[in-house]
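Many introductory courses stop at the sequence. We go one step further.
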Amino acid sequence: MKRYFLASLFALTLPALASAQTPSEFAALEKQVEAARVKYKIPGLSLGVLRDGKLVYTHGFGLRDVAKKLPATPETLYCIGSSTKAFTATAVLMAVDAGKVKLSERPVTYLPYFKLRDPETNAKLTVSDLLCHSSGLPRTDFLMLAGEGTLSRKELIQAVGAAKPTAKLGEKFQYQNLMFAAAGEVAATAFGMPYEKVIEQKIFAPLGMTRSTLSVAKALADKDHATGYDPASQKPLPWRDITATAPAGAINSSVVDMAKWVEALLSEAKPLLSPESYAAMTQKHISMSPTVDYGYGWFLDKWKGASVVEHGGNIDGFNAEVAFVPEKKWGLVMLSNVSQSPMAREIQELVWRSLSGEKPQEEKPAAEPSKPATPPTVPSKDEAGSYTSTTPSVTFKVGFEKDHLVLTVPGQPPYAMQHVTGRVYRLTPPLPETFKATFDEKGLTWEQPGVKLVLARVKENTYVAPLTVDALLEKMLTAAGGRAAWSKHKSRVDTVAVDFENQGMQAAGEAYAAQGRQAQRLSILAVGKKIGTLSAGYDGKGPWISASFLPPQEIPPSERARAEADLSLGLLEPRKLFATIELTGTEKVGGEECYVLLKTTKSGERLTEYVSTKSFLILRRDTEGPELYSDFRPSGGVIVPHKTVQKNPSMGDIAITIKSTRWDVPIDPKVFNKPK
């Protein structure tokens, strides 16, 4: 559920297998695509290119199934993920053309059960808002994944209605899968048939997309289907069945079939849509960034002044990109069998250059960063330092070695940096030029495909503390109940209630702690139903997390620091847990002045605690995201915060309330072990 920066990209050599003789004009493109596929560790990829509104080139690269050594072909079926959203938008607009739906109407007109938590948004949100991510709700993918298989589409739409918005209606772009599920149901209601039938009968059939399907079972029964892979481990992943949220991303298709879809779009969606509806679909309805807008089911971008209409798709084991340039009658379809990669963005650049007649730009590997022709406007060595962001909580360290900068991110190898222009640097090949850092007076802006992160430069600490770190640590222990009170406790079991405020879900369960270990075992609830389980813990060696609805998860190194700090040892013997502890200044938390305590583990993970200058209780802790503590009350002779609010970058606010605590009770040691 979390986004990671600078994923390691090492070459995996797999054979490129052509589906047919390659036209000489696309030979250079083919070579570049294959090089990029290897660079990004993509097992298999299929590509289709359209010119003058017609399919002129298809090719399969690599393997659709590594274990069986089966080649990828233009006919290979992949899951297209969120590229499905454009089909859903088209279905709604077809209902508009048929006089069955009005974009200005509220969804409740067609879905009587549709209701949102915020009264103002509920009263004003329209069908149009469902199609352009303007509802004010954040991503509720945790609810979507947990509810799949246990909740119907109607129940998921009801559940997301209970989620707390993070913006006003239309205030900003916030990607929202379940609003597209609602849009799909609007189309289904209008046409009087299930959403899947709407897509099959109203779009697939007229366009001749005979091998496309919304059924995972049918896709897997096809002899030419791809196996999906995890980008980091290269291990195969099972196809994820998202029937309940099908309008957001359930279509499975091939390059050949999808090219028929793009051909229709390049003819203004004839025979599917009226000119007015096609124009509405491909015009701006909300801005995503200063340079990218969103229409209905499509991102709207530019390439050298020309308008580009595109949408990618990411789902377990698969990555897709569908794009077209209306004024030039260009189009492309790329389908691949790896969960995420920068290929979606790079493939556009490669194809558009090829179609425009530009000569390919060969990227030559460089062992050492070469010196630029013009020197940087600020000496490179002066850019060295630490740069930090609070949301997500991450610290980049930039060092200067020999004659170049080196970027280090916790838990990853160092990356050499190469000067581009001014104060802009990129990572050296074979990493793509789209991974770059721009320095300024305040810090640096990090950019990579799909990510833009602003980090502030950490100033040299000139703070003169009124007390020593050890004195502060002792006051913190005393405020929490004292050494004697904490030392006598051998175990603890909390009964907790959890509110995923921005997800429309709740949870209930228990949290355990004993002998330097901890664990939480929770049942996830939505619309009054148990929809899954979530467990997390620290077994004394490292943190783990397990969910009934997710594949195995990698845990960021920073979570180890948080887990260890949560143990009683974090209060009793902090010097044993952390290599360094610094008192760096003061800052306010909720209006209360706090000491800022920076703790660093031996492996380099950083944890920041904000300690009240009055009560000496910890009011906030930052690792991956801020945690706020409140409602401090006595329990078992010590002082414990009975409410914690986690500010999770991907899931929003998670409020955890302790309902009761049992001290010094027997706990089965197995509870601390990761479930098999």
